[in-house]
Each structure stands twice: as structure tokens, then as C-alpha cells.
Amino acid sequence: MALILEVLDARGEAVRERVRLENLPLTLGRGYDNDLIVDDPYVDARHARIVLDDTGSTVLEDLGSVNGLDPSDGRGRVTRLALKPGTELRIGRTIVRIRDSDQPVPAALQDLAERVAPAAETQGWLNALWARIAITVAAPFATASYVWLASYERSGASDGFAAAMGGAVLTAIWSGIWAATGRIIVHRFLFLAHIAVVSCALLASILYAAAAKWMEFLFPDNLVFAPIAMLAGLALITATIVGHLRLATTMTRQRRWRAGLLTSAVLVLIASAAVLVESDTFSDVPEFSGQLEPFPAQWLPAGDTQEFGSVALDLKEQVDQLASDSLRTR
Q: Residue range 185-208: average pLDDT?
């Protein structure tokens, strides 16, 4: 049996270092000439030493330190302490604990997570620096172009520039939060990679918005696009969250997708509730899409003037009949 000395953190939870007490004497202190260097400003340069006494027992002796040796049994500071399995004391503000080499340890946990380094560094083709820079530059340019092309005002260019700059600032803040999270969890500050993930999502949303406008223009009365738009938004948010989690955590693929789906589902439900509340107010003003797109007229699902006149005549007869019925009922 051999004794193991464990150096713990100030809270007594995490083990900083373990030393087998075999080659004695062994000195402890903050100085670099010690056998065990304790990085604690409340520990002397040569604070204590571990020796074998006349009976062969392992003891810890104070070397005239400022703060002494403080056992955890509550008896106060001592200058000499016998070490045995279970002994715990404070040196300065560092906790020291003695263990037996035969001390049982829990069974190893099964590693279900992906390795940190590949998970943090690999994001498909986004791993290339040129790709991250290209995506990061393309996103604000696409935003400005989309706003400018969709505007019919003289200030379209300035509106596009303002939208691009505002989106860039929000993207930087969002990516900075994720990068800081990754720095804490996987010890990597992948700021540019997180910006590339958000930029990909932004480009995908712009492409979808442009396609949706064309579909709304060509098929204005189609009710299928609303659920498709909801599913597309759900997929886009989920993929974005999963991309961030892959860079900033060591979660498994299944857990990342579950977290992404749950987050996106909550956001979609909140957005749907807001739309329902906003559209619940009554208005006698008809709402219709006034979006125009450069599309050949002969391909549009439209009728000729004769058909229009026939429909207008039918409507006039119906209105006249309603007016006549209203006069008779009076």
C-alpha cells in the first residue's frame, strides 16, 4: 500500500495534481525548488515537508510558514500532522488530501460524445478559411442586394446598406456569444466559424424568401405555401442551432439535433402565436399581395378582357339583385 497526496482546488472538488509518497522526504511550497509546487499566494516558498518519523509513519511537518497547517477536523493549526488515508488539511488556501493506492474508483464512463478536436474543428467545407471568409462577405452583400432590389423607393440603396450593416452587427454579437461558449466548453474561440454558420443560414433564408415571392406572385391563392414556409423555417433554425452546437460543445449528433429541433419548435410556436394575435383584429380593408415580378405575360395564369367583362357583368347583376331585395324588405 502506498499513500497518494491529492492537491485540490479551493472548493475541494477538482483534483489539480496527484503525487505518490514514495521518495521521502518531499517538500511542498510555492518555490520552484520544491518537490511539489503549490501555486497559491498564501503558501510559503518552502511551506512544509513530508518525512518518515522514527516509527516509520508518514508525517507532514510545518517549516515555519506564515499560515501553517490547518487540518479539517477542526482542531486548529498544527505544526506536525500524521498522514493516513482520509487525512485532509488546508495549506494556505489549497486543500490537500491523502488517499490509499488501493482506493477503489468508479467504473469508466462510456464516451458517447465525439472527440472534442474533430468536433470543434470540422464543419465540412466550412473548415477552410477561404470558405468562411467568402460566406461572411457574401451574406451582407446578399442582404443589401435583396433589400435594394425589393424596394421601389429612392432610398433603396441606403436601406439596403443599413440592413446589411445591421445584420452584420447582430451576426457578430450572436457569433461572439457562441464563440465565448465554445471557449469555455471546448477551449476554442471559433468566432469566424460561427459567423460562417450564421451567414449560411442568412443566405439560405434570402434564397427562400426570393423563391417564396415568386411562388406568391405566380400562385397567389395557393394555401400550401404557409405550412411549407413553417417547415422551412423550422429546418433552417434547427440546422443553424446544430451547427453552433457542433462547434461549441461535445454533444453527440443525436443530442444536437434534439436540442435544435426543440429550440426551433419553440421559436416557431412563438412566432405563429404572434402572427395569430396580430391577424385576429377585424378590418374591412382587403389584403392582397401587390408583389410584381419580371415575368413574361403570356406565361401568367390570366384571362382576356372578354372574360373580365363577363365576370364584371355577373357581379353587377348580383349587386343589383341584392339592392332590389333590400328595398323590398323595407
A: 88
Q: In the structure, what pLDDT confidence band is assigned to residue 287 with cuts at 50, 70 and 90?
A: low
Q: List 69's β-bridge partners, or say none.
A: 78, 91
What confidence score (pLDDT) does residue 292 get?
A: 62
The residue count for the chain: 330
CA atoms of 257 and 261, how far apart (whole Å): 6
Grid coordinates given for 173: 454579437
On the 0-12 / 13-18 / 19+ scale of CB atoms within 10 A, 61 is middle
State how beta strands 36-37 and 26-29 pair: parallel
Planar angle of CA 289, 293, 294, nearest 5 degrees? 160
Residues 137-152 have pLDDT tens digits of 888 888 888 888 777 7
In order of 116, 117, 124, 184, the CA distances from 187 in angstroms are 9, 10, 20, 6
pLDDT range class, residue 59, cuts 50, 70, 90: very high
Lowest mean pLDDT among 61-70, 123-132, 154-163: 123-132
The packing angle between helices 129-150 and 156-185, to 10°, is: 150
Task: Give the span between the Cα atoms of 243 and 179, in whole angstroms.
Answer: 12
Report d(CA 189, CA 178) in Å as an integer: 9
Mean pLDDT of 14-32: 88
User: What domains does the chain contain, in order, with CATH numbers?
Assistant: 3-100 (2.60.200.20), 116-278 (no CATH)
Residue 271 pLDDT exceeds 70: yes
Our CA dihedral for 228, 231, 232, 233, rounded to 10 degrees, sits at 120
Per-residue DSSP letter, 297: G
Q: Which of 95, 52, 93, 92 is nearest to 72 (CA)?
A: 95
pLDDT (average), residues 97-116: 72
CA distance 143 to 206: 7
Number of neighbours of residue 188 by Cβ within 10 angstroms: 17
**Hey, which residues does 100 pair with through a beta bridge?**
3
Cα–Cα dist 209/22, whole Å:
71
